[in-house]
Amino acid sequence: MDYQKEREEVAYFMRRLYDKNLTTCSGGNVSLKLDKDKICITPSGLDKGRIQPDQIGIMTLEGVNLTTELKPSIEAAMHIAVHRMRTEIKAVVHAHPVTASSFAASEKKIDTALIAESAFILGTPVMAEYAKQGSSELAQIVAAATARGNIVLMANHGVLTIGETLLKAFDRIEVLEASAKITLYTELLGNKRALSDSQFKELVSGSDPVKRDETKLIELIVREVLEKIVRMN
Ligand SMILES: [Zn+2]
Q1: What is the whole-number distance in angstroms between the Cα of residue 6 and the centre of ligand 1?
Q2: Fewer Cβ neighbours under 10 Å: the N or C end of the chain?
């Protein structure tokens, strides 16, 4: 099997998302960059809790499915758009964890200044506007949001995190869900005491900086990829 190690990694982290209650058996998707123009990605329509390496598909960043026996994730275009936007990262994780997704369906924000780990790992998550799942509009909106941060809350949908490794992207989604729970619990407890602005800034400055490339014409890139995907289907 081509790219066995990478496909094993993707399958393992998909099962781990399910085991950790961060996704349902049908929701969520994970991708990992294989080289400068290919990714491997979880498929659509299979039980995510039992996913195996030979069920992980391979696609080019032009949107061509190189494993035609497998149906790519319905969010493949979103993953591709993100990989094209943030060329220095390797992994993209998307899921609908219950607590963080509740905040994505609320005007209230996840408070990442409540504990040091949240501040350090998450900084301030980026919000992405709502668009229909699987749509080209969603792919564009979310890719544009990743230009501003590594952690994206997708309105009325879920969350997406990216990282230099799958472990980093997974850590970010796990800490985000924990941070959402802590925000709720401290609200219930009352007498909430958050880090001061200077304590928060001191922690955030130690976390990974976001590499920005303002010159990227994301809309054009995404449109081009999506047109190719549509033509193939
Ligand atoms: Zn989703």
Answers
A1: 22
A2: C
* 74 CA → ligand 1 middle, Å: 9
Res 9 pLDDT > 80: yes
Digit-coded pLDDT (tens) for 70-93: 999 999 999 999 999 999 999 999
Question: Residue 8's domain is classified under what CATH number?
Answer: 3.40.225.10
| Residue in 150, 98, 104 with CA at minimum distance from that of residue 131 | 104
pLDDT tens-digit readout, 199-221: 999 999 876 656 544 445 566 66
Range of the domain at 113: 4-226
DSSP string, 53-117: GGG-EEEETTS-BS-TTSPBPTTHHHHHHHHHH-TT--EEEEE--HHHHHHHTSSSPP-TTSSHH
- Give Cβ neighbours of residue 51 (< 8 Å, ≥ 6 apart): 11, 14, 15, 42, 43
Per the CB < 8 A criterion, the answer to whether 30 and 9 are in contact is no
Rounded average pLDDT over 102-108: 97
Whether 211 is in a domain gets the answer: yes
Q: What is the pTM of this model?
A: 0.89
If DSSP codes are grouped into helix, strand and coil, which group holds residue 217? coil
Q: Which residues have beta carbons under 5 A from ligand 1 (an ion)?
A: 158
Domain count, the chain: 1
**Cα 71–Cα 77–Cα 83 angle in degrees, nearest 5:** 115
